[in-house]
């Protein structure tokens, strides 16, 4: 026990509680035939919850935590103790980490690997005592200055090799800890200017790197899913993994569409100019929906603010798409969210997660009710019902020709008239559930 969270007790489900509690998230409540915990599969992000110091571009650390700056193994171990105390209080079934979050980087690749395994020993023991499982692990290939021009896409082949060694070590630890996924986030896989960039070569290098990761997964028998996390920009001006559509095209180009799925973040979807539900729906249709980071951006800010979710209607539409996809398999709901820099107390971290879990629970129940009532889907089916007619199906069949379709339109004297999309009625319908 670290003692950092003091008298804070494990959160219980109590709709009428005045103090810290879960008011909507009842992990054992059955929704569409499955426990709520098994639907949502909540995970805590180690980096924002225990690594972020409350800084911003105009000011440094505001949080005062006993393990900061975590630049020694002793402080890293103290941070691990506090993290698992928090996991116990929250009752979340999973957590996620980058290698850089859990241990200070060593003076060599070997020392960094050994330090990572030393922390993994602690994790393994804590998990065996009933701690949470590992939703996914990943490598930080963006913070160190060596990655200023990317990792897999770096013009220096030694950086490519260094990144490969780092990812191998992180996959090994993820495999060892029973991780259900491994994530690659290309924060600096992109370019600032085409004046000094060979875009085609960098994409080929990125494709080759990902292929090597997939090959290694199979070699060691890792059964988890390899995930890519799309993001359009920030820190790099133009990142190659811009959004779901871009990543799918990349996977198809390098023959990886059946090997890799996506970890989709709400904040990144917003930065790409999309809604979260758009990205989820597209990934579902393409068969590459894997997992999600549930956070939000401030709509008045043009950067990734990583705030805890608090909008039930948006959350309901997200889980609607996830439920339509059949729900999570190896994926889950990771809170890649951080406190505001003025939220200094340990209780702030607890209540931020508790509130987010309640918002997601409300969203999930609303989404399930919408699906069970079938009114949205019925309206959608009705809108496209004309395509069920034999003449319409014939236009899509093998052997149909443009001139044949055109001739039928002329012969039948077609004069189609617009039909209302009923958008406002459907928006009002959604509001009945949330």
From TrEMBL:
Cofactor(s), names only, from the UniProt record: Mg(2+)
Subcellular location field: Cytoplasm
Family matches, as InterPro entries: Xyl_isomerase-like_sf (IPR036237), Xylose_isom_bac (IPR013452), Xylose_isomerase (IPR001998)
Gene3D superfamilies: Divalent-metal-dependent TIM barrel enzymes
Gene Ontology BP annotations: D-xylose metabolic process
Free-text cofactor note: Binds 2 magnesium ions per subunit.
Binding site for Mg(2+) 1: 229, 265, 293, 336
Residues bound to Mg(2+) 2: 265, 268, 304, 306
Catalytic activity: alpha-D-xylose = alpha-D-xylulofuranose
Keywords: Carbohydrate metabolism, Cytoplasm, Isomerase, Magnesium, Metal-binding, Xylose metabolism
Superkingdom as given in the UniProt entry: Bacteria
GO CC annotations, alphabetized: cytoplasm
Gene Ontology terms, MF aspect: magnesium ion binding; xylose isomerase activity
E.C. designation(s): 5.3.1.5
Signal peptide start-end: none
Record-annotated active site: 98, 101
Subunit comment: Homotetramer.
PANTHER family to which the protein is assigned, alphabetical: PTHR48408, XYLOSE ISOMERASE (PTHR48408:SF1)
Homology family: Belongs to the xylose isomerase family.
Full protein name: Xylose isomerase
